[in-house]
Each structure stands twice: as structure tokens, then as C-alpha cells.
């Protein structure tokens, strides 16, 4: 979390992640200019990872999200250990109700985005 949370406010914000995406086309959603654009792009990204269409990322869906985000920062991940540590960090910060899943509203809140 520390590698993303540059202002140390305990929140993972889109602009914190965007710093690592300068050359990555898949990160355009992080740099959207308006709140409306950011909401729209967030919906697309969340839908991409929410393969089961439950409105929550769980199990392999969380793993896929974590893997893709971490590869932006640390392309040479050292296998499952790093991914598991990053996964636990994401769940600790974003899984507000501690059910082992990250609901859409939890991820939005964690990223500093208002959905409505």
C-alpha cells in the first residue's frame, strides 16, 4: 500500500495508481479528466474483473485485479508470495465489511471515487 499511497492518508486513490501508468494504454481509465469519465471507466474496469457478475470481486477475480495492478508498478513480481501479500493488503484496505470480497462500492470508496 505504501508504494501507492504517496500522501499517506490511508486511501488508495486513482491518481496514486496513475503515476505508474504513463506508458500503459490500459491505464487510461486512471487519468480520466472528469468525475463522470472516471465513473464510466471504473464501471468498465470493474465489469471486466467481475467475471461472475455478482457485483463483488472474489477469489480469482481479486487475484486478477491485483496481478494486473501490481504488474504496472513491479513488472518483475517474484511469484505467488508478492501477489498474496498485495492481495492481503488490498483486502485489508478495501474490504470494509471483511467478507473476503471487494464489492463495487468498496473498491470505489477505496479508490476515492463516488459512484452516485
From TrEMBL:
InterPro entries: Calbindin_Ca-bind, EF-hand-dom_pair, EF_Hand_1_Ca_BS, EF_hand_dom
One Pfam family this sequence matches: EF-hand_5
GO MF, one annotated term: calcium ion binding
Keyword tags: Calcium, Metal-binding
Residue stretches making up the EF-hand domain: 37-72
One GO BP: regulation of presynaptic cytosolic calcium ion concentration
GO cellular component: cytosol; dendrite; nucleus; terminal bouton
Domain of life assignment: Eukaryota
Name of the protein described by the UniProt record: Secretagogin, EF-hand calcium binding protein
Source organism per UniProt: Gouania willdenowi
Amino acid at each position: 500500500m505504501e508504494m501507492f499511497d504517496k500522501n499517506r492518508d490511508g486511501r488508495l486513490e486513482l491518481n496514486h495508481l496513475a503515476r505508474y501508468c504513463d506508458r500503459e494504454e490500459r491505464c487510461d481509465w486512471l487519468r480520466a479528466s472528469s468525475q463522470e469519465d472516471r465513473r464510466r471507466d471504473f464501471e468498465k474496469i470493474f465489469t471486466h474483473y467481475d467475471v461472475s457478475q455478482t457485483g463483488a470481486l472474489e477469489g480469482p477475480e481479486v487475484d486478477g485485479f491485483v496481478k494486473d495492478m501490481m504488474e504496472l508498478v513491479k513488472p518483475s513480481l517474484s511469484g505467488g508470495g508478492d501477489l498474496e501479500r498485495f492481495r492481503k493488503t488490498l483486502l485489508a484496505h478495501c474490504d470494509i465489511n471483511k467478507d473476503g470480497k471487494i464489492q463495487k462500492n468498496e473498491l470505489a470508496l477505496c479508490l476515492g471515487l463516488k459512484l452516485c
